[in-house]
UniProtKB/TrEMBL annotation:
Organism: Maridesulfovibrio hydrothermalis AM13 = DSM 14728
Topology with respect to the bilayer: Multi-pass membrane protein
Transmembrane feature ranges: 17-37, 130-154, 208-227, 308-330
Residue ranges constituting the ABC transmembrane type-1 domain according to the UniProt record: 130-327
The protein's name in its UniProt record: Putative glutamine transport system permease protein GlnP
């Protein structure tokens, strides 16, 4: 009936309110249960130490490099210029904060003695690992998109060489674990590449780039299949219509097929890249200090496993949730066009 709002029986506002209440009660119960469980463990929580794993003030000792005596100390604002005179007219000058001076004029000093210290802010293990995770994930995503796009197009190509090459790459990569591929890239291909570079006195490739390569190539195989499925989901009549209007196959693919396919492949692409962000935690096995490895090192030095592993999980959640929100924003923009 026109003008009549049809609503399924039992699906009114009361129904929605009831099940939302059930959800929040269940969530509150879970949090309360977790809090109660932590109280039963003989563990001292030190949440106040968490900020120091992002940024902390480091005291660096200023030590002498020669043996001799302090010939002069001249203040220069907040710092002091300490001149040490040694044997054979040897001398060295150090700039030391005035409030940290530990020597006086005519004092005798030996190699390695501390004459003062300076404070500087440094990034902590967690922040350093988070930055590496962001860097690795961003670069790997870009390369995975490029590789996956071209491989997906080669997968549906009429050229047998391109098609067989794409199939071989996809099946080889998807048929082996990512951890194994990381080991192969680092210990096998990395050793071969760096050995060849060393022969010609060319700087060696850092482990970070082998980690990025392994992630990009692994994700690229899945992106290729997503791209292939997205293109094939567009009705063949679209290509035939574009060709009948005089468009080349390249232009038809670029202007007609790919824009429609992109709308369909965006959600699965987001899921693949979210998985890749989490998979970057495996790079710690090849000495890349990403977020998980940084957390593991922080735990081993501080003996605070509960706080730090909770923090690590929350940071991964923030990364993946932010990326998911960005993809949803792109979806809404594409729908509005």
């Amino acid at each position: 009936m026109s003008g009549t709002s049809l609503r399924a029986p039992g699906k009114g506002r009361g129904y929605e309110l009831f099940w939302k209440t059930v959800f929040f009660v269940g969530l509150f119960t879970l949090i309360a249960g977790l809090f109660y469980a932590t109280k039963q463990v003989d563990y001292v929580w030190r949440w106040e130490r968490i900020p120091s794993y992002f940024y902390y003030e480091h005291e660096e000792n200023i030590t002498t490099g020669i043996e001799g005596h302090i010939s002069s100390i001249k203040e220069n604002g907040a710092n002091a210029l300490v001149l040490i005179s040694g044997e054979d007219n040897e001398s060295e000058q150090y700039e030391v904060p005035v409030d940290s001076l530990q020597v006086y004029e005519d004092d005798t000093v030996f190699v390695g003695d501390t004459i003062g210290y300076k404070k500087e802010w440094r990034t902590g293990l967690i922040l350093e690992g988070l930055i590496v995770t962001l860097k690795v994930s961003a670069i790997a995503i870009v390369f995975a998109i490029i590789l996956g796009l071209f491989t997906g197009l080669a997968r549906i190509s009429e050229n047998p060489a391109l098609k067989l090459s794409a199939i071989t790459y996809i099946e080889l990569i998807r048929g082996s674990p990512l951890l194994v591929q990381i080991f192969i890239w680092y210990f096998v291909l990395g050793t071969l590449i760096n050995s060849m570079l060393a022969k010609y006195d060319i700087p060696q490739v850092p482990p970070l780039w082998f980690g990025i390569a392994s992630l990009a190539i692994f994700a690229g195989a899945y992106v290729a299949e997503i791209v292939r499925a997205g293109i094939q989901s567009v009705h063949k009549g679209q290509m035939e219509a574009a060709r009948s209007l005089g468009m080349s196959k390249y232009n038809a693919m670029k202007q007609i097929i790919l824009p429609q396919a992109f709308r369909r492949i965006l959600p699965p692409l987001a899921g693949q890249f979210i998985s890749m962000i989490k998979d970057s935690s495996l790079l710690g096995v090849i000495a890349i200090r990403e977020l998980t490895k940084g957390t593991r090192e922080a735990v081993s030095t501080s003996l605070q496993p509960f706080e730090l592993w909770f923090l690590c999980a929350i940071l991964y959640l923030i990364l993946t949730f932010t990326f998911s929100m960005f993809v949803q924003y792109l979806e809404r923009r594409m729908v509005q066009r």
